[in-house]
Design brief:
Blueprint: H1 2-16, E1 53-54, E2 76-82, E3 85-92, E4 95-101, E5 109-117, E6 126-128, E7 131-133, E8 135-138, E9 141-145, E10 154-156, E11 163-167, E12 170-176, H2 177-188, E13 194-203, E14 208-211, E15 214-218
Parallel strand pairs: 1-15
Antiparallel strand pairs: 2-3, 3-4, 4-12, 5-8, 5-13, 6-7, 8-9, 9-10, 11-12, 13-14, 13-15
């Protein structure tokens, strides 16, 4: 009887040491969770441009231009350029216009842009070199800046009176001066009678490919 009891204990011990059948283990298994994917954000432009300032652009012959230290006039025409990229600003008979002449066909570019620092303060707006852009003309739309300086964030504030045309290698924006000043003031909260403007081009891959220096614009108060 004692031998049977000892044999029973041995068999019970051997059975307890056997692994559970595959898939039937109750022992929890620790696994590493899949990493949370980091979203890829595409921000235009991909680089922050360095913009030089030309506060006293050379006036077009035969016109009254607005330069540093000069009073605003009811009519002016002035231009800045970088090679074959030329930005011309005009104020004639109460109509404000910006004419951007660019190299090559229009189909080479995704965006024609004019950035405007309406308070001449680099601490406000989108920081671009030593300027702070508060407004952006991009193709047919006008935008006001809503970011925190380095973010490319804008809100559309395009007035119905803004006209946009492309003719050959020219891009033209036209708007009555009274509407321009009203829209600028409403969107930016600034006076908008004196500002800096510069232009740039973005190619089909949203790379900045050309820029012109900034010019100073002064408008007569309405």
């Amino acid at each position: 009887m004692l031998r049977l009891f000892i044999l029973f204990l041995i068999l019970a011990s051997l059975t307890a040491c056997q692994p559970s059948p595959a898939g039937g283990s109750d022992v929890p298994v620790e696994t590493d969770p899949s990493p949370t994917p980091v979203p890829t954000v595409t921000v235009f432009p991909t680089t922050i441009p360095t913009v030089s300032v030309s506060p006293s652009p050379s006036p077009t012959s035969g016109t009254d231009a607005v330069g540093e230290g000069e009073p605003a006039t009811a009519t002016f025409e002035q231009s800045v350029k970088n090679g074959s990229l030329i930005l011309t600003a005009r104020l004639q008979e109460g109509l404000f216009s910006l004419d951007l002449t660019f190299p090559g066909p229009a189909s080479s570019y995704n965006a024609f842009q004019v950035l405007l620092d309406v308070d001449r303060d680099a601490r406000t707006g989108y920081r671009s070199g030593i300027l702070g852009a508060d407004l952006l003309l991009e193709n047919a739309n006008l935008h006001t800046y809503t970011g925190k300086g380095s973010e490319w964030r804008w809100m559309d504030v395009t007035p119905l009176e803004l006209e946009y045309r492309q003719e050959g290698n020219h891009t033209l924006w036209e708007i009555p001066l009274s509407v321009w000043l009203f829209t600028c003031r409403a969107a930016s909260g600034k006076d908008c009678t004196e500002m800096l403007a510069f232009a740039q081009l973005a190619d089909r891959n949203w790379n900045l490919v050309a820029q012109v220096p900034a010019m100073t614009l002064r408008f007569p108060s309405p």
